[in-house]
Write a structure and sequence with these properties.
By secondary structure, the protein is mostly beta strands. It has one domain. It contains 2 helices and 13 strands, in the order βββββαββββββαββ. The strands form 4 sheets. Strands 5, 6, 8, 11 and 12 form a 5-stranded antiparallel sheet that branches. Strands 3-13-4-7 form a 4-stranded mixed sheet, with no helix packed on it. A hairpin with a 2-residue loop joins β9 and β10. The chain is globular and about 40 Å long.
């Protein structure tokens, strides 16, 4: 992979720390790697990357957070074959998820808060009744979820990336 930054002029925006109402809100912060790996992928380099995802603003503080990490535009668009996915019980207004053993590359996150634990994203006339979100805190458009290109972030090999997302 040549220069991972050349495809995305907004890449450096991921590293900005924004202070909103006294709360440090970080979209993406790279720090030294922690030697924790629970699974290795075949091929590629830098297969020990870690992404820590903090979702805040969950209301009500119960139910299940259903989160998927996608590694390509096709799987993101079709919502199939995520690199990782998980369902985490919500017991407060914030949930933290950690995926380890990732290889270097571009990823995007999609999640929803299944507040009533029925296993599906509830809508009425295609208007969401449950909270949801995407990496980079990109809002959805009129035609549905934002594109992979708008929500993607670069995962450097051997690093830990912290993603902070607000439930919409």
């Amino acid at each position: 992979m040549n220069n991972p930054y050349s495809d995305s002029p907004n890449f450096f925006l991921l590293f900005l720390v924004i202070f909103v109402n006294g709360l440090a809100w970080t979209n993406c912060l790279c720090v030294d790697a922690v030697a924790v790996v629970n699974r290795q992928f075949e091929g590629g380099r830098g297969q020990n990357a870690i992404v820590m995802i903090r979702v805040f603003g969950l209301n009500p503080p119960r139910g299940t957070l259903r989160l998927s990490l996608y590694g390509s535009e096709e799987t993101y668009r079709n919502r199939t074959n995520p690199v990782r996915s998980t369902s985490v019980p919500v017991r407060g207004r914030e949930v933290t998820v950690k995926f380890t053993g990732l290889k270097e590359g571009w990823y995007a996150i999609m999640f929803y808060h299944d507040a009533n634990n029925n296993g599906k994203f509830d809508t009425v006339l295609k208007i969401p009744e449950e909270q949801f979100g995407f990496s980079n805190n990109v809002p959805p458009g009129l035609s549905g979820p934002p594109s992979f290109k708008r929500t993607r972030f670069f995962m450097p090999g051997g690093k830990t990336v912290v993603i902070v997302l607000k439930a919409q």
